[in-house]
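subagent[fold] <- orchestrator: predict structure for attached chain, return tokens only, no commentary.
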Amino acid sequence: QQLYFYLNKPADLPFSFWFGRKEVRYDREALIGTSTGWGNYVFSYDGGMITLDIPQFKIDCFYMQKRQPNKTGFDNWFDNDHFYGYWFTYKDLPYQVKVDQYFLIKDKKENDDIVYTLGFRVYDKKLPTIDFDTSFVYQWGNYVSGNNKLDRRAYAIHAEAGYKFTYGIKQRIGVEYNYGSGDDDPSDQS
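subagent[fold] -> orchestrator:
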């Protein structure tokens, strides 16, 4: 499931990196995660990541391929989608608010199926009584259906806010809104 080499801040430099097979999680596993639904079927990523982490911000740059367990044989490195991009987190804001900005590319090697994802997230989960999490994601690219190369364009919005009770009980009450546009014309050719 996991076998990787990890070097964390050598000689007190603000860099770290890993390569190998590793579980990777971002943003509540909405776009990058290890689980598939509610089951216990978990996958990992083969690849590598380099990270620059300083008090003001953190940026991860990576190249990976998703790996699902193969119970009958060995994995083939060349049969999986290429997945690369960066994830930038700005940390130097009041009240521990953080801002994420990311750009992801998923490229299927065997055809012209490619997806670009640009996203923004603003959140704070550390305040004593309230928390919030908002994000906007825009996706575009091409995908192949039969002999047609089709255009892809869609966006998604996520917004949630919560209140944590601090008097005797440890409970949270919250409200959440999610919207996914889908492609407004899934049959248009590029």
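orchestrator: received. Logging for downstream: The two ends are 38 Å apart (CA to CA). Strands lie at 3-8, 15-22, 44-53, 57-67, 82-90, 98-107, 114-124, 130-145, 148-164, 172-180.
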